[in-house]
UniProtKB/TrEMBL annotation:
Pfam families: Aldedh. This is Aldehyde dehydrogenase family protein. Residues 26-254 form the Aldehyde dehydrogenase domain. SUPFAM superfamilies: ALDH-like. Keywords: Oxidoreductase. GO terms for molecular function: oxidoreductase activity. It comes from the Bacteria.
Amino acid sequence: MSRLTVPKTYKLYIGGKFLRSESGRSFEIVSTKGAFLANAAKASRKDARDAVKAARAAVSGWAGATAYNRGQVLYRIAEVLEGRRAQFVDEIVSAEGVSRGRAEQQVDESIDRWVWYAGWADKYAQVAGNANPVAGPYFNISVPEPTGVVAAIAPQDSSLLGLVSVVAPALVTGNAVVVVASERFPLSAISLSEVLATSDVPGGVVNVLTGSPAEIAPWLASHADVNALDLTGADALDWVDLQMSAAETLKRVITPEQGPDAAFPSLDRITAFTETKTVWHTKSML
């Protein structure tokens, strides 16, 4: 007796929940050969606002966690992703049309990237912060802190590695993220959301939207409750206009023109979305 298959429904990931778009819209995902793969939710302006609201609510708890704990959570993501490696390889092969070896390489690099950033969680402050020389009986210390809610456009030519490359560094310091996945290859992004949901990442810390970056990005760029904008994957958009919109609310911005290696792991990507707090403290005169 044959059984019915259980096709997967790819939804948005907002506030720790898997939701359909409030607009009810979806779009077809096809392989590079034109074969139907799945339907995915098409995020709307309202979905973007809901994602920002969820991220804002999650920032204080995530930023307030110890650096060691954040590192543990990021490492746990790598562990769970490693356990589902075969699934992600299959998705990338079917969606991107690459060889199995190339797909395995992308998944392995994604896992390694989570591990790399996890290792920096309790170390970046020692490198990015410092004790400043002052003329007087004081300690003057500069400490990096998260900027808040980061909106990101993931690289559009990668289904998994590109998204990990923009999300992971923002999480290290305690930011919450709203990320727009690759429009062509969104399936692995939602599968990664399932990994996040089972890896001790608090709901709302990462929110994943699928659909059209051209439609969603302007609302994120102009949203007053978004503190920073990562446009690494917005090279095909009018990103100068997005940058101008972001400037109206004094957002920090990473632009696409920073080169093809802009998403490569680096301390600069960790500190790009941090603020520096300077603390004065009197020295004991005893």
